[in-house]
Amino acid sequence: MVNYTAAQELALEKFRANSLEVISHYSRYPLVGNALSIDFLGGQYILDYPSGIFKTVNSFEKELSIPTQILILHYLENIAEVEETGKLISFKELPGGSIYIQPFTHRAIDPLVRFFGDKPDKLKAVVSHLGGYANSLGDVGVTIRAFPRVPVTLILWRGDDEFPASGNILFDSSASLMLPTEDYAVLASAIVARLKGLSSMI
Fold this sequence. Notes:
The strands form 2 sheets. This protein has a 5-stranded antiparallel β-sheet with strand order 4-8-7-6-5. Strands 1-2-3 form a 3-stranded antiparallel β-sheet, with no helix packed on it. It is globular and about 55 Å long. The model has no long low-confidence stretch (mean pLDDT about 95). The chain contains 6 helices and 8 strands, in the order ααβββαβααββββα. Helix 4 (about 100-115) runs parallel beside helix 6. By secondary structure, it is an alpha+beta fold. The chain folds into 2 domains: about 5-75, no CATH class; about 90-200, TATA-Binding Protein (2-Layer Sandwich). The two termini are about 35 Å apart. A hairpin with a 4-residue loop joins strand 5 and strand 6.
C-alpha cells in the first residue's frame, strides 16, 4: 500500500506558502470566507485555509481520497500565468511520459475503452453532467475541464469487424506547466472512474 503522508504534508506546506487571495486568483476557484470553493469532477468542496482540510458540500462520494486531495493541492500550488495553446498532446509527449505510458494506458485509456467502447455516444451524454462538451475528434470526442485551467480531451473510435474499439486521452500542450506528469495519470484515471460512475446513474 502506498503511503501518501509525506506527499500530502509537502503539498500542504506549498499550499500554505501562498496567500489565499493569490491562490484564488491563479486557480480560478472563488473565495468563500477563509476558504476556497472547489468544484472537481461534479463534486463541490470547501477547502479551508491554512489547514488544508476538505469539507464535502455536494458529491457522489462521502469524501475525497488522499491522492485526489494531493492532486488538487498540486494544482493550487501553481501561481504562474500559463496560456493554453489549443494544441493537443498525448501523455507520452509530457516530460517523462514515454516511460510511464503503459501504466497510464492501463489506468485510464483501457478502462475508458472497455466501458464506453461499445457505447461511445453514452460518453457524450455522461460528460455533459460534468460541464464537458463534444468535440470533432475521433468517432466520439469530448473535452472536460478537470480544473479551471486544465482541459482534458477523451477520444473514442468505434470497433468494427477488423479492429476493436480504441481510444486516447489528450492534454493541452501547456499541461506540463500546470502539473507534474505523474499527476496526469491520477487525473485521467479519476475522470474515467467518475464518468463510469455517472453512467450507471443516468
